[in-house]
Amino acid sequence: MTPTSQKKNNRKYDLLLLAALAVIGLSLYAFYWFQSQKSIPNDSVPTYYVQVEVNNRVEQLLPLTADGDYTFRNIYSKGENILHIEDGGVSMQNASCPDQVCVYQGVITPPTMIPIVCMPNVVYVSLVERSEINWADIPKELVPEELAEDYAAFEKSR
Fold first, then answer.
1. How is residue 41 annotated by DSSP?
2. Residues of 111-142 as b/e, b for ≥16 C-beta within 10 angstroms?
């Protein structure tokens, strides 16, 4: 074999190797792209929920998309809090307590999920991801429709 034909053979193998690496690279890219598309949440099912506890008992579980005002009363402290959900955030609109710390706390949104706490009225408002809801604390009547399957799976596993 002459040196020129040997160079042509080497070049031919180099091109085949380069083509094979390109196919493998594109295949991996396509695989990971399709996987990432599967993990994008469906917009019709909220990812975050507002969990409201009064006297350490879950009183409400609301999708973060459920815009509106919600009133919570503590029969023991005779206190009242008005929660406001709007544009993917939640805030305490009004409270019957004297210091109003929970009202001044402002709006909480994901990913900064510092809870809103009203100590005099014993109200605790937090944002929870759908995957991190503690179903053992949630009464069945508080489960939103879009979470019915998740709750049924929890009950089945007990």
1. P
2. eeeeebbbebbbbbbbbbeeeebebeebeeeb
